[in-house]
Design brief:
Number of strands of chain A: 4
Largest interface: A-B, 80 and 85 residues
Radius of gyration of chain A: 27 Å
Oligomer: homotrimer
Structural class of chain A: mainly alpha
Distance between the termini of chain A: 36 Å
Shape of chain A: globular
Largest sheet of chain A: 2 strands, antiparallel
Helix content of chain A: 40-55%
Chain lengths: 540, 540, 540
Amino acid sequence: MNTRIINGSLCFFLLLSSLIADVYAKTATSHDFSALKEQYYKDHPGKGKYKDHWEPIEIQKYWNPVDFYQPPPSVPQMEVNREQCVECHQALTPGAYHAWRKSTHANLDKIRKLNPANVRHYKKEKLAEIEANLVELGILKKGKELEDVSCIDCHGSVGAQSIRHDKELVMPDRVACGTCHQGEFAEAEAEKQQEWPQQQWSKGHPSHAMDWKANVENAVWAAMAEREVAQGCDMCHYQQNKCDGCHTRHTFSAAEARQPEACATCHNGADHNEYENFMLSKHGTVYQTQGKKRWNFEVPLKDALTKGGYTAPTCQYCHFEFEGEFSHNLVRKVRWAFNPTPAIADNLDHPWFEERKEAWVNSCAACHSASFSKAYLDTADKGTIQGLAVEQEAKKVVQALYDDGLLVGQATNRPAPPAPEKDAPGGFFQLFWAKGNNPSRVERLHVDMWEHDLIKHYKGLFHVNPGGFTYTEGWSELMRGYSEIMDENTRLRENTDKPAKNTAAALDSENFVDNGIRYSLGAVLMVVGITLIRRRKTNH
Amino acid sequence: MNTRIINGSLCFFLLLSSLIADVYAKTATSHDFSALKEQYYKDHPGKGKYKDHWEPIEIQKYWNPVDFYQPPPSVPQMEVNREQCVECHQALTPGAYHAWRKSTHANLDKIRKLNPANVRHYKKEKLAEIEANLVELGILKKGKELEDVSCIDCHGSVGAQSIRHDKELVMPDRVACGTCHQGEFAEAEAEKQQEWPQQQWSKGHPSHAMDWKANVENAVWAAMAEREVAQGCDMCHYQQNKCDGCHTRHTFSAAEARQPEACATCHNGADHNEYENFMLSKHGTVYQTQGKKRWNFEVPLKDALTKGGYTAPTCQYCHFEFEGEFSHNLVRKVRWAFNPTPAIADNLDHPWFEERKEAWVNSCAACHSASFSKAYLDTADKGTIQGLAVEQEAKKVVQALYDDGLLVGQATNRPAPPAPEKDAPGGFFQLFWAKGNNPSRVERLHVDMWEHDLIKHYKGLFHVNPGGFTYTEGWSELMRGYSEIMDENTRLRENTDKPAKNTAAALDSENFVDNGIRYSLGAVLMVVGITLIRRRKTNH
Amino acid sequence: MNTRIINGSLCFFLLLSSLIADVYAKTATSHDFSALKEQYYKDHPGKGKYKDHWEPIEIQKYWNPVDFYQPPPSVPQMEVNREQCVECHQALTPGAYHAWRKSTHANLDKIRKLNPANVRHYKKEKLAEIEANLVELGILKKGKELEDVSCIDCHGSVGAQSIRHDKELVMPDRVACGTCHQGEFAEAEAEKQQEWPQQQWSKGHPSHAMDWKANVENAVWAAMAEREVAQGCDMCHYQQNKCDGCHTRHTFSAAEARQPEACATCHNGADHNEYENFMLSKHGTVYQTQGKKRWNFEVPLKDALTKGGYTAPTCQYCHFEFEGEFSHNLVRKVRWAFNPTPAIADNLDHPWFEERKEAWVNSCAACHSASFSKAYLDTADKGTIQGLAVEQEAKKVVQALYDDGLLVGQATNRPAPPAPEKDAPGGFFQLFWAKGNNPSRVERLHVDMWEHDLIKHYKGLFHVNPGGFTYTEGWSELMRGYSEIMDENTRLRENTDKPAKNTAAALDSENFVDNGIRYSLGAVLMVVGITLIRRRKTNH
């Protein structure tokens, strides 16, 4: 009894758990859905603001079906019914058929028979909600059960009995899935509401919900003559258009989408190596040694630690969570977002950032103490700012070379990038377009620094992968880029009347022993912070 | 009934399925086997055409046992029988013993007891065939059952009761495995029949069946003084010699060899990153999230989608398949093969290439629509050609520097590579040999472009890994290589009487805005194709 | 009978198996433990010899708790008992709670009920030993059973009934774990006894047992202003401090720690890519295709091949083993250790190295023949020396540029690194610190050669990953680095009065065809060895 009383006084964090609610239980109403659907199409950019600069190629009708898809001439010129779709495609595309055949969509009755002890029982409730939604939309008759979700429901329209194969065939978009899965659709669309306090990003960016817009309104993407290469970007940047980026067709499995590998196709590599960082972190190795065999991915995320048996987080466990709730809105704790910039570094003490950091502390505190969580997040912030400082110094050097006209071939062989892209030293476009001496070597070095190395540094820090921000990626790579740029700078300025501004002579008033950090106000404040922390530690 | 009639008219692809036959049921006859065996040894190059330039080191007797293996002096100088092999090696090499002990080879009776409902039942039929083969070869008495496949059968000869350990011990080659597994041996050897319509590759290349020949007849491999490094190539290039590259000794599991990781040791990395591309593609992430737990790799590939439960393809599912049949001949759908070259790019409209592309469309169509499949394959072809164009432009720049004698150290410090290798700018040998200023920096940049970046670009495209051909590997890396080479070109020509031919001045008649594509006839035709497609799309 | 007699004469290796003993059965006595504990703290460097150059930041109290941890002010200012810890943390940190709840620590009774047939039965014996240890230490009353291992046992002291949360809370160190797990603690600490015959490394280095000392006594680590980046090194270099690097809290699973991924967080990447090499080797692909599903990681390593069903080795199987015994002392077979150097290459014929190589032959011979094992290990040694030769030649070129004052910016813009680091061309510090033209480009190229490429080359060879030492990493990367350095050398010496010493002219007495190997006595002896082997092979 005494124990209980003391617990009562101890557990000031306990309140948090009461905030945990099954957001899957929240269903958008039919009215909401109509508004949501309308807004979805209104927000969708189609070909976007650079529409006059590019034309879709054939494959793009699959990445953005609403704008580009037409049934191919090879399909039967006739009316086909529910059963015919299935029967014929069982023979035509057996892989797709069998994936669907084993899926929940084809086995709704199994869901209805789940007993409450089953970890998948929540699907029974969800099915009831979906049926209620469909009744409200007039698609399902009240009192009737949905038989199955078949080819025609997604590739025609929900509940259709037959369609003209050559005229009415569609590739499903977010709205198609959202017609039944209204709650998830609403959650996912909520990402568009994200607003940055100092307009570091425009409203709703970056997010899955606006990734197609980000894609088509990227100047170099629209400018590239090589449309077949450019469409490679679409292969990830289509989450705004469709839901099968995570719930692969034709299984559409929630359990699949809860596993880290589900994120891997898009979140790996040069400038978004979250997957590698996770897998190599302690979190990831526990997932690999324990999780792959023992954790139950059929349980909803809210039950992961209890019924699911998770002993480490997954991508989904941290990024779907916000203040104890799980949702398809993944940007509620975003702070540094896609890449570290001074505009973020200088404003981390703004309440918007502070509150989000607090939300992260709470997330980590599911397993770690709040002290540990805060200490690590502070470390990651400061380490990120340290990487940014290196990149910013290099940036100035490259900009100065450009301003002084000293880049290799700058005067003789620097074609402009194709419209709508515009020339700039070290521009993003230089990763995807090159001609003559645009970019020059030193520029590409800088692009790789800010777009690859700095991002990897930051992602390595926040995903707790030590090699990802010290050695293999991150800091040591930033050091290499910096050295290469300084070397180029010294050479390019040799025998010119524009000597480098960062030589020992020019910088003689600076202390080379204790350098490496020279930058904006925010960073200076940070340094003061570190000093204070260190002093506090010394007194321990 | 109506349904059935309509299906009949709809399912024009259905015919395809009737083509699916179990090639495992086809057994080479004893006569075929003798001929095959004879041909196998006749085709085998031994030390190859550069035989005078290199001597095998000790370890190579394991990579090519037929030519180099002799029992080591440490083995017992005596006759040993079947049981002795097993008993002694149970103590000597317990790992090998236990792997075998659990294998099918040691448990033939379990195979005989499989009932038809078991997915492994096909092994019972296979065992019967093998026994029939052995009877025909006079190794097994008619009516007798094979007891087991034991040490002595593979390391002596099939059915041997005893061998002289110090004189008759062998390391098994393809023929040793093929003596029992005649059908698979015949399939695998069939790769040698591949002929390229415009001699892009010599007959039978590239293939597993001739990979040892490719290895030893590669000039730099034979030329390298560092034999211990060179033999590293053998560690993959031995499939022509042995079967345990895929069916690891001493389990020799078909189920193991059906999993993507079985291909990983050889198909990863610098110039053959198929494994990474697969694993990061949607195909690979489905394999990782669903397949590793739920798919049954004991089922033969032909039953993968049905009994095996595959919901995505594996390496094996696509590359063993040809027109609905599965075989150990993996080159039947090869088109771009090892690396993209103009000789392939310019001939894609030749029926040989067209038919193979059609075969690929059919493979993809197991799960995807034919329209999708064709659209994607067209995209991959065109994207590959776009990458090739960048590399070819860079190649000309490097060649011109060489022709003009402007490479760093070209006149003062350029030793020739050792025989039988010959000097050339940007040659393959420069990946494995370097001395003084051979290669110069700009050459190595070009080798890396054609041998790493372009290949990765192409492999990324065809394995549907977006980051593999836009960003992390492929296109963006080609852009970097191109920029570096252009930068070098401008510098190396500064203050010489040989100005660059691709400066803005020299190229003033070209439109820099819409450039990036300048190449061979094939590519021009392709551009026309794109234009036509775009026009068609615009009318939608 | 005859069989048995022959076996008797054949199995001269059999003796080896009798050496296999369960080291887990060996328990340090209470007296040993006290001495061990005392010695542990005596050996521990705390802040190390550069203590005046750095101050710990907040997060470091978790990487080295004994020196830096203090309970945070936010914890309850009160006495808490065993039950309260658990009850409150079930709510506060449910992830940590549930991990522990399912662990052996929370389920000792289940261990006691294991019957001898269970592969985990060895844990029952271990529990009895632990209880005996605790009785001897006066922590457990004789005849009493340990109820569980709860929060308070590790975060207070073993057997404590209550602690002052704000004063007595600790983060456990090696001694805390070692109090119960005395045998494992003793094994792990034994790494400190390693002495190198020619002082290639100082006593006890490199090892897990002294990795914190290696960390804090690394000059650039102490010198870096960016403490948040530097602490990233601590995130692996803390094994000297704690045991949860392998046995992740709060499961502390032996089965987890036996899986290769458990090593991945630290043993991946730039200069220790053992994990990648293993996973891509045949060993690793067998683990991935067969092991992840079928091997039983609950069995102790000594039973791995039999009861565990391993058909290939894991990291742990080879590195914990020495002469048939398994122990937490992982350095008993170390030869090349962290990186190849002439001081090792030149002494491989010393008995210390020869005996260790023999121990490796025995390890490999668990599955492979001794002839194969020896042939491969010889190959790996020679291949490593070949890589070292390339790096050493490049090193001389960079050193000469430095000595001649020809590095870019050497006279005008070369700040010294911060104390306690000292300037040197191509120094380790240049991976982590850069300013102005320190390092210059050619230096960083060399650092990457010796610290990344050469190490990867060596690790690729010894972990049997062909692409890891021929192509993707290793040799081909060394060739690139060499070419780049030679290119720089030629350029930097152009128009100076200090021409390169390795030009064709300067080297005209050397044969460029058969070059590539010029180095120390040890290597020359090696070449003679190769020649002899080749001659022997030719006579076959």
